[in-house]
Amino acid sequence: MLTIHSDSRGRALAVEGAWVAEAGPLEQLVEAFPRARVRRWPGILTPGLINLHGTELLDGAYHPDPREADELGTAPLTGDALTALAPDDARWGASARRGVQRMLAHGTVAAACEDGEPARRAVRDAVRRSGLATIGRIGQPGGTPSLDPYACGLPVEFARPRERGSAARFAFFDVPDETALATAGAGTCVATVVEGRLVYRRR
């Protein structure tokens, strides 16, 4: 089923399957695809974000389950705390699933990893099932690993531009414009679409 996603400025994408069928003003797309489902989101539409610290956040950090908050807290565990926890493969897989969901909640559609994908098999399997893309990188990107790409201290990178025929990977942020997004950060995400699927929606 073809779906039109639009932001509060009237910028819209028509999505069919995993691909962008057309991009343009909402009124134009509704006219072109009169039977399409229309979803309107607050704020602005942007390409999905790329988190440059995929290796650090997925292979090098443990994301606690909310049920572990009393014991482990809520922030990702790294360094000595991670060493002391010594997660087994099952915990690594569960951590990766939670980490991916938290990335998606920040409008992230791809994570950059050394060798192009996570090194741990349990993490790699969890990421593949999620739909989150992974891309290669050379060395460490610098900055501070963060689920919010705007908080890592590096220039923010976006996935491929939203255009006809490109993969449907984009996000909506509840801010008035791109300048406000850079100030408020990716925690303002209200919806993330990956391969045409709505994988995150703020409740």
What can you tell me about this protein's structure?
With 203 residues, this protein is α/β, with parallel strands linked by helices. It folds into 2 domains: 83 residues, Urease, subunit C, domain 1 (Roll), CATH 2.30.40; 103 residues, no CATH class. A 4-stranded mixed beta sheet has the order 3-2-1-4, with helices on one face. Strands 5-10-11-12 form a 4-stranded antiparallel beta sheet, with no helix packed on it. It has 7 helices and 12 strands. The mean pLDDT is 94.
Summarize the structure.
By secondary structure, the protein is α/β, with parallel strands linked by helices. It is built from 7 helices and 12 strands.
Descriptive keywords:
single chain, 203 residues, Urease, subunit C, domain 1, 2 domains, 4-stranded mixed sheet, 4-stranded antiparallel sheet, elongated
Q: Termini separation (Å)?
A: 24 Å
The share of residues in helices is 25-40%
Structural class: alpha/beta
Radius of gyration computed on alpha carbons: 18 Å
Number-wise, the strands total 12
Low-confidence stretches: none
How do the strands of the widest beta sheet line up side by side? 3-2-1-4
Helix tally equals 7
Largest sheet: 4 strands, mixed
Would you spell out the secondary-structure blueprint of this structure?
Elements: E1 3-6, E2 11-16, E3 19-25, H1 26-32, E4 37-40, E5 44-47, E6 49-51, H2 54-59, H3 69-72, H4 79-85, H5 89-104, E7 108-114, H6 121-130, E8 133-137, E9 157-158, E10 170-173, H7 178-184, E11 189-194, E12 197-201
Parallel strand pairs: 1-4, 6-7, 7-8
Antiparallel strand pairs: 1-2, 2-3, 5-10, 6-9, 10-11, 11-12
